[in-house]
Design brief:
The protein is α+β, with helices and mostly antiparallel strands. It contains nine helices and eleven strands. It is about 45% helix and about 20% strand. The longest helix is centred in the middle third of the chain and has 27 residues.
Length: about 250
């Protein structure tokens, strides 16, 4: 769905990729970008498929996963409005390392990968911004991915809910309802809907969250951090992407 150039420019500026770029380069990108919608449960792309585009999320939530050798799906990242995904594969001109699933209905700005590479070839500042954004995201995902790969079900769901709360707070402020079904939470935690319902019901009774119709509100972040086996209740990830475990050895 083609949108006015000003709208596309605003989205690119909002994620830090457009501001200060060469006007001619940006014009080429605007012509090769459009807003698309993806239904809940659909894939924006699958792992090991060519990176024909990257996207900036305008609304909704997506989950990035990679299959482990044992066959288990490992959650790599959770992303929301303002986040950019697929940029690393676009920069490297390689296949996507992760599958990208729409956890809710999603609207995203789709940017053609070939057009992006052509633009950055003639615009060092655009390339610098893209590289900086990709590296920061990559480092920021290491701790989250490790915890989601090795944690028990309840710890994974607690960590996922904390991450979703951080994403939700960008637009709505802290301690506001996260509009998410138990099915979507189960998808994030790679568990059954029954397990997600049972665990969130227990948290609700303990006063850690308030469960509503298709929504969850965190009331006790420290309690969820303890459940996720993390030490620092101030944020989910440190700036270098390292999660601090609650119990350390060595």
């Amino acid at each position: 769905m083609r949108q006015p150039a000003d709208s596309i420019r605003t989205i690119l500026d909002g994620c830090g990729l457009g501001t200060g770029s060469n006007p001619a380069s940006l014009d080429r990108l605007l012509a090769a970008s459009e807003l698309n919608k993806f239904e809940e449960g659909s894939y924006l792309w699958h792992s090991w498929t060519p990176a024909r585009f990257f996207c900036v999320l305008v609304s909704g939530l997506v989950r990035l996963t990679q299959k482990a050798p044992c066959g288990k799906q490992v959650v790599v990242e959770l992303l929301g409005p303002g986040d950019c995904t697929g940029l690393l594969a676009t920069l490297g001109n390689v296949t996507h390392p992760f599958s990208c699933l729409a956890l809710t209905d999603v609207e995203a700005l789709i940017v053609d990968s070939d057009a992006w590479r052509d633009a950055t070839f003639n615009d060092p500042e655009l390339f610098r911004k893209a590289t900086s954004a990709a590296i920061t995201r990559m480092l920021g995902g290491y701790g989250f991915m490790a915890a989601m790969a090795t944690g028990e079900v309840e710890a994974r769901l607690a960590l996922a809910l904390l991450r979703l709360d951080d994403i939700n707070a960008r637009d709505h402020g802290p301690a506001t309802p996260i509009h998410l079904t138990r099915k979507a939470l189960a998808e994030i935690g790679v568990t059954t809907v029954e397990s997600a319902i049972r665990i969130t019901s227990r948290w609700n009774k303990a006063g850690m969250i308030q469960a509503g119709h298709k929504s969850l509100t965190i009331l006790d972040r420290a309690g969820l951090y303890s459940t996720a086996q993390l030490a620092d209740s101030s944020k989910v990830l440190s700036s270098d992407g390292v999660l601090t475990p609650l119990h350390q050895s060595g």
